[in-house]
Design a protein that fits this description.
mainly alpha
């Protein structure tokens, strides 16, 4: 697990180096902001359309081999992009094609690597492993963003792609040496399911989708996460407008807010790693609390007050994410987890694409403060309403009386 965490830190740092300069590269090639958005959409489209098939592949193929090959392929694509940038042979068509290939490989790589990390620890330690993964992701993001500016400044844009490619190859070289623990969840029922997959063909995709739809916990988790993703969390957009607009701040002020968000995310990851048996109810309570904090933050009279509120917002969001990810990766049977993650990939991509336009429209109508307040109240109100409806529809269980409770009545009757 230590080696896997180190590999993921290196990979996340490389990924964020590339993401930091990707939009800049598209602008350099085309000079068009619309083309920048198009490249992002092309890379996200495979996750929306074929994540189900990618999850089925993860359930069907050996997990270590799948993760190793997918990481090596992602590294190859990044290195090819770096060579094309260095030789000045990268145009928009080739860039979009490479983005589509990257997105397609990621539909397999994402669930494979997530579930492989869980196989390295005992089942009761999976929540901690997911928390460590969240912490590594946050640290890699900070390191990669910082290194991107240095690399581009001294070596050019292609250096970020080259660094990302090497980081993927580093992960691929580590995977063969990882040893899943005895009794790891990912090893249960793997062989019977692979036989079933060969016999059933694409039935495996439908089986994962049917399981997700029949599982109220997962449907509720999707609803909670979706409404939070659409009306909250896009703090890079909403808080940037709030700081530079009503609060009359500058780029340095927003930098302080971003730092508070990053620190809160790291603290939340550490706290989330201590969860043993998170539930959907906990995820909903944390998401509702985050929505209320967001609404209060929208009313902040000054930057100082906003900074005080932003830190707990980030902590609550990070713990909620860790708890939700744990439920998602441990609730399904081991032989269905890849397909369930594939369903989740399609759903989450959908609300990821719908969120920014919806929030942007809300900001146009109500301003930055109104968007934060309204969005936070919508999140808390929807989750609270869902909880009340769930309580009403759930019948009160009847507890059978024990013998010692029946004895006095029987003696009286006698």
């Amino acid at each position: 697990m230590r080696w896997w965490s180190l590999a993921n830190f290196v990979s996340n740092a490389g990924t964020w180096m590339q993401l930091t300069v990707q939009n800049l590269l598209v602008l350099q090639i085309t000079g068009s902001a619309a083309a920048t958005g198009l490249s992002v959409s092309v890379q996200a489209a495979p996750a929306l359309l074929i994540s189900l098939a990618g999850g089925a592949a993860v359930d069907r193929w050996p997990r270590k081999l799948t993760a190793m090959v997918s990481q090596a392929l992602l590294g190859t694509v990044a290195l090819v992009t770096a060579v094309l940038v260095a030789t000045d042979r990268l145009d928009l068509t080739v860039l979009l094609a490479l983005a589509a290939v990257t997105g397609t490989i990621a539909t397999v790589d994402g669930p494979a690597c997530a579930l492989l990390g869980n196989d390295l620890v005992r089942p009761e330690d999976v929540p901690s492993a997911i928390g460590v993964g969240s912490l590594v992701h946050s640290a890699g993001r900070l390191a990669g963003t910082a290194c991107a500016g240095v690399a581009v400044g001294f070596l050019g844009t292609g250096a970020a792609y080259a660094a990302n490619g090497l980081s993927f190859l580093f992960v691929a070289s580590v995977v063969p040496f990882l040893k899943p623990v005895a009794g790891a969840a990912g090893r249960v029922a793997a062989v019977p399911d692979r036989r079933k997959a060969r016999e059933g063909g694409d039935m495996t995709v439908r089986e994962g989708l049917a399981f997700f739809a029949r599982r109220p916990r997962l449907v509720a988790l999707a609803g909670i996460t979706g409404i939070s993703a659409v009306f909250g969390r896009h703090y890079g957009l909403t808080l940037a407008v709030l700081v530079t607009g009503p609060l009359a701040g500058d780029a340095g002020s927003f930098g302080a807010v971003s730092t508070a968000l990053a620190v809160g995310g790291i603290v939340g990851a550490v706290l989330g790693a201590r969860l043993r048996k998170p539930s959907v109810r906990l995820v909903g309570a944390l998401a509702a609390a985050g929505g209320l904090l967001q609404a209060v933050a929208g009313l902040s009279p000054s930057l100082a007050v906003l900074l005080v509120l932003v830190l707990p917002m980030a902590v609550v969001e990070s713990v909620s994410d860790t708890a939700g990810t744990t439920v998602l990766q441990t609730d399904p049977p081991a032989h269905l987890r890849g397909r369930v993650l594939g369903v989740w990939g399609s759903i989450s991509t959908g609300w990821g694409l719908a969120g920014p336009p919806a929030l942007g429209l809300l900001m146009e109508c109500a301003g930055a403060r109104g968007a934060l307040v309204a969005g936070g109240l919508i999140i808390a109100g929807a989750i609270g309403t869902g909880h009340l409806l769930r309580q009403r529809s759930t019948p009160t269980p009847i507890r059978p009386l024990r013998t010692e409770e029946l004895r006095p009545a029987l003696e009286t009757a006698a």
